[in-house]
Amino acid sequence: MTAGVEHTDVGAYALGLLEEDDRLAFESHLRTCPSCRFELSDLAGVASVLHGIGPLEDAGPPREGQAGVVDLLQRKKAADRRARRGTFLLGMAAAVALVAGGLTVGTQLTGGGDPPQAMAGRADHMGPAEQFYADGTPIAGKGVGGVSGGLVVESKGWGTHAALKLSGVKGPLECELVSVGKSGERRVMTGWSVPAPGYGVPGSPAPLYMHGGSATPLAEIDRFEVVTRTGTTLLTVRT
């Protein structure tokens, strides 16, 4: 994995199954990937349930005369561990999608988006943020300069989770989604770069979907803002 960190390694990291160099590489990746950080927090409960499934520890040094047999067994165990890890990552990728997109059923995030029958054929093509937005009831925002978008929000025990849909932005640009509390406190929920083609514009019609979290409880948030690195407010969504 050190040749190229994969987002799906969040599951293996949560269970402590990564080798030391892979673990260090993934921790470096976490510092610049809000999506993986969010999914890691949601997988904490899964990790506690699956704790202990990792590979067996070595029993100790081989006895005299067993070195050849033990070497063969150790090489076989390493191959088995790589195979188990590949199978595990496929399963965890599905678990991440369920955790990030499916746990909102039964909360206030119902009644919006397409009906379940229509969504069933599209679910495989949606990322967690887009799925969460499609399943919820969006709050439309007020944009400037042709920018449009909205948010789907939900209250969490740890604060507020929000999924953003954004259109009408051209790059290159760096943006952040910020929660603004009724007290005036501002918290960055997630950040991203807009490439030169942009999102939701001629030639690049697909909107941007992002999700993030704020430690501020939903009841204490006055509004959400999409702001550029230079401080320009592109979109305001009031709760």
Characterise the protein shown here:
With 239 residues, this protein is an alpha+beta fold. It is built from seven helices and nine strands, in the order H-H-H-H-H-H-H-E-E-E-E-E-E-E-E-E. The protein has helices at 9-14, 20-30, 34-42, 44-50, 67-102, 116-120, 128-135, and strands spanning 139-140, 142-143, 148-156, 159-167, 173-181, 186-194, 208-214, 221-228, 233-238. The strands form two sheets. A five-stranded antiparallel β-sheet has the order 2-9-8-5-6, with no helix packed on it. Strands 1-3-4-7 form a four-stranded antiparallel β-sheet. A hairpin with a 4-residue loop joins strand 5 (173-181) and strand 6. Helix 5 packs parallel to helix 7 (128-135). The relative contact order is 0.12. Residues 48-59 and 93-123 have low confidence and may be disordered.
Put the structure in a nutshell.
The chain has 239 residues and is α+β, with helices and mostly antiparallel strands. It has seven helices and nine strands, in the order αααααααβββββββββ.
Largest sheet: 5 strands, antiparallel
In one word, what is the shape? Answer: globular
Oligomer: single chain
What's the number of extended β-strand segments?
A: 9
Low-confidence regions? 48-59, 93-123
Helicity, in percent? 25-40%
| Helix-strand pattern | HHHHHHHEEEEEEEEE
